[in-house]
Amino acid sequence: MLKVGVLGAGHLGKIHLKLLQQSTKYDLIGFYDPVKENAQKVSEEFGYTSFETVSELIDTADVVDIVTPTLSHFDCAKEAIIAGKHVFIEKPITNTLEEAEALRTLVSQHHVKGQVGHVERFNPAFTAVNETIDNPMFIECHRLAEFNPRGTDVPVVLDLMIHDIDIILSVVKSKVKSVHASGVSVISETPDIANARIEFENGCVANLTASRISLKNMRKTRFFQKDAYISVDFLDKKSEVVRMKDVPQNPDKFAMILQNAEGVKKQIYFENPEVEMNNAILDELNTFADAIENDSKPKVTLGDGTRALRVAHQIIDCFK
């Protein structure tokens, strides 16, 4: 089993601690949190070992799970990588692109592995249809959340929209051609609601909306491709595939058939793929352990995290 330590014991850090303790692939050695009162509380309440310094935890671990505020991701990851430790970094990978590129170089130099916590890749509603998504040409994303002060230290693009940016980049096999966006600061000092249009060299267009000041929560993405429409509800863990196929010679009398202006007839088929429920955070942590043990490529590489961050900053730059 891999010895793993967690940096950061805030809301998400405590979730990571709980799941790592449950995992059969890791041996949880403990955590470090700079706020002594919080560290003592977490240690006393859950029984986790609290380390006195970041360096002490890194020295003891094989894998360092970084769940600290984004501004400290780079320094924590750099120290761990130089010490020869594998790193799991919560999204976004770092605060700046320069930091992200530096981590990619360090991981290569020190022959360790890194993974970024883009957890929606492991959402069962997405994994149920991932292989069905084939060359989508229009994608529409809505990620809406009720206001929560936690996370408002960064723009909504880095807080929420980056989830959808990563999903889009994982399915569109083409380079980004252009980015257009607008954002509005309503409550926070940084934009709370944003809309972005990403155009790819192959002609695909993605339209993303993210808000953290909505009256309801929503996390839906729709993929449109030749002869198919795929809907993914990341929040309610549901998927639907609507296919258009040539009408059979003897269609069922209840079949839904459409005819276009050219007279071509298509039959509509509705599919609801089986969604196998899981804990996406536990899955992403366990697949990272598998990548280390098998010396294979992590599911979400530091390169993936860097590409998502690059597009996120292109969107943010449009606000200026």
Automatic annotation (TrEMBL):
A molecular function GO annotation: nucleotide binding
Protein name listed in UniProt: Oxidoreductase
Domain Gfo/Idh/MocA-like oxidoreductase N-terminal positions: 2-118
Superkingdom assignment: Bacteria
Pfam families: GFO_IDH_MocA (PF01408), GFO_IDH_MocA_C3 (PF22725)
InterPro entries with a match to the protein in the record: Gfo/Idh/MocA-like_OxRdtase_N, Gfo/Idh/MocA_Oxidoreductases, GFO_IDH_MocA-like_dom, NAD(P)-bd_dom_sf
Domain annotation GFO/IDH/MocA-like oxidoreductase: ranges: 156-216
